[in-house]
Amino acid sequence: MSAPRRPTDPSGLERYYVLTGGRSGPGGSASTLDVATLVVSRAVPLPGMQHEHEEILRRCREPLSVAELGAHLHLPFNILAVLLSDLLQAGRIEARDPIPAHDAGRGPDLALLEEVLSGLERL
User: Fold this and answer.
1) CA geometry: angle at 103 spanning 98 and 105, to 5°?
2) Which of 49, 55, 81, 85 is most enclosed, with most CB atoms within 10 A?
3) What is the C-alpha radius of gyration for the chain, rounded to an integer number of angstroms?
4) pLDDT tens-digit map of 41-99
5) Contacts of 8 (CB under 8 A, 6+ apart)
């Protein structure tokens, strides 16, 4: 009877453990990330970088939300947050609040909300 064969390509939990170096969550400034946070590259990928770090830098040439990035990379939020934390600490990406600080106290655009409500009522 032969021993069960292990897959050569790690998937699931093993893959995530390898990607994050065993870390389960981000630290430092990345602990404030949420799914709406916009990520923008500040540098180009370097030879020898971890593949997922390279992909993040490539995809975030234009601002991209953490949720969109996770969907493109097929990664859960907590795993992606660890990878983003690495890049934030290295100064290779910038994380932006999706609502600029000068607009935060202004509130929603009531005219737009009324148009949306009107459109929904017509459906």
Assistant:
1) 110
2) 81
3) 19
4) 999 998 988 888 999 999 999 999 999 999 999 988 888 988 899 899 999 999 988 76
5) none
Could you give the C-alpha distances from 36 to 52, 62, 106, 112, 120, in angstroms and in order? 20, 15, 18, 20, 24
Q: Which residues touch 89 (CB under 8 Å, ≥6 apart)?
A: 28, 29, 30
Q: 64-65 and 38-41 as β-strands: parallel, antiparallel, unpaired?
A: antiparallel
pTM as predicted? 0.66
Structure tokens at 94: 């910038």
Structure-block tokens of residue 101: 């600080």
Torsions phi, psi for 39 (to 5 deg): -115, 135
- Helix/strand/coil (H, E, C) string of 59-100? HCCCCEEHHHHHHHHCCCHHHHHHHHHHHHHCCCEEEECCCC
Is 26 in contact with 81 (CB distance < 8 Å)?
yes
